[in-house]
Amino acid sequence: MDSLANLRAIPKHDWKVRVRVSRCWRRTMGDAQVSDMGFVVVDENGSRMLGWIRTSLMFWFEHEFVEGRVIDIVNFVVRPYTEFHRNICFVDDKYMFLTSITTITPVEAIVPNFPMHVFGCTPLNNIRYYNMQETYLIDVLGFVQNVEAMRRFINKNGVEQCFHKFDLTSDDASFVTVKLWNTLATSFWEMIEGRGEQAMIVLLSSCKVIFHEVSHMAVSHVAVASRGSGATWQWDPPNSAWLRQRQKY
Q: What is the pLDDT, as a whole number, of residue 222?
């Protein structure tokens, strides 16, 4: 098997990897039509990679991509990102692309020490450097403070939407405002209801930085269904050493 870290965007169609499905989602267009399917996989070495399945192959492959499942993917190509790609889930220069000769086989054996997710958290005091770029999304991690109530509204297309905001802080007093939308907002709100002032750490993956004014920065979480975003949170009382350690990954 090949390691994700060793994959190269070269004329080769017989790559083969053993990976765990970290995230998967359908990408839709403005008319709600499904355009393709995206996924993020990780291998036992702690590498991660984004991949795409075109619509014509989703019937054959989509059911194999169950989050948490370990699978063997054989006979696929690796393509380079171009200058036209925008809002890539994380920093990388290539992605997997499945073809009609690709085969996917679930791994039934128990695979120990195989990570479910891999993150590369950006320190909150460095987020300002990502304001002007639209190529990559980032992962962020911090303490949750100043949670606002859920807000709901009807957009100009007559679709109900919801969001809520809170501050994400670090032990060096850096902070950003986080805005969660729709499905992720609802899920997060259900988790925090009734928790009171209990301390919490949240890790958000594939976030977009939006600069609102000179002295204020905000991180807006992109739509779960279109960019493979995700979140994890810890309810145990957090500590600064744990936070600093997590920011390394």
A: 30
